Amino acid sequence: MNSVIHSQISVHKRGGKIDDYLKIHDFMDSTKELCSDNRHRILHTMWGIKRVIVPVFGHTIINSNGKAVNVKDLCEQDHILPDYQNRFIPNLSDFVKAIDDEAAADYDFKEFSKTYENDPELMELLLSPLSITGLQKSLLITHNSWFINEIVPKVLNRNIEIKDFNISPSDLFNNMKFKLWMDNGSSYPASCKFTVGKVVG
């Protein structure tokens, strides 16, 4: 499903016009630049909404009808749920558990973080996947060139860094297995095992 279709869903539910919503839906799917299949949907999680989307776009936007639209609801109801047949919203752990344990052990996250250790706000964001999942391999999501130069400048207004990075987004997706639930909700992820048949969110 592309960003125009998601925006049409938003117009149907919330009024306004496609251009009111297109930037948000485009941004949620910007990870298609990193991975051409549905493993790219790491922002299609509550972590993605809370830590990335809302900080970039704000808690609400005003559409062309003058109506306040809740960004969290927009992301959940008009983008993530339709992408999974309105069956579930995956959590970050679902994606992280698909990352190969042995391959992830090859990366030195402490060395990557050293550059940012005197910036507590940035360090909190970079370490947030570990805080949520308890799995060190989750740091492949934030400890890479894409997150530092595409996400951090938008979320925390930091400068981009022109340098060679030891970890790139390809290190994340090359080590992430494709799971059936990622295929537009063809099955349920582990986080939904107690809510099968129900819409969660």
Strand order of the largest sheet: 1-2
What proportion of the residues is helical, as a percent range? 40-55%
- In N-to-C order, the SSE pattern is HHHEEHHHHHHH
Average pLDDT confidence is 95
Number of strands: 2
Number of helical segments with 4 or more residues? 10
Distance between the termini: 20 Å
Describe this structure in words.
It is a single chain. The chain has 201 residues and is an all-alpha fold. It has two domains: 3-90, no CATH class; 99-173, no CATH class. 46% of the residues lie in helices and 3% in strands. The chain is built from ten helices and two strands. The chain has a two-stranded antiparallel ribbon with strand order 1-2. β1 (60-62) and β2 form a beta hairpin. α1 (3-14) crosses α2 (18-28). The two termini are 20 Å apart.
Please summarize what this structure is.
The protein has 201 residues and is mainly α. It contains 10 helices and 2 strands, in the order H-H-H-E-E-H-H-H-H-H-H-H. A hairpin with a 5-residue loop joins strand 1 and strand 2 (68-70).
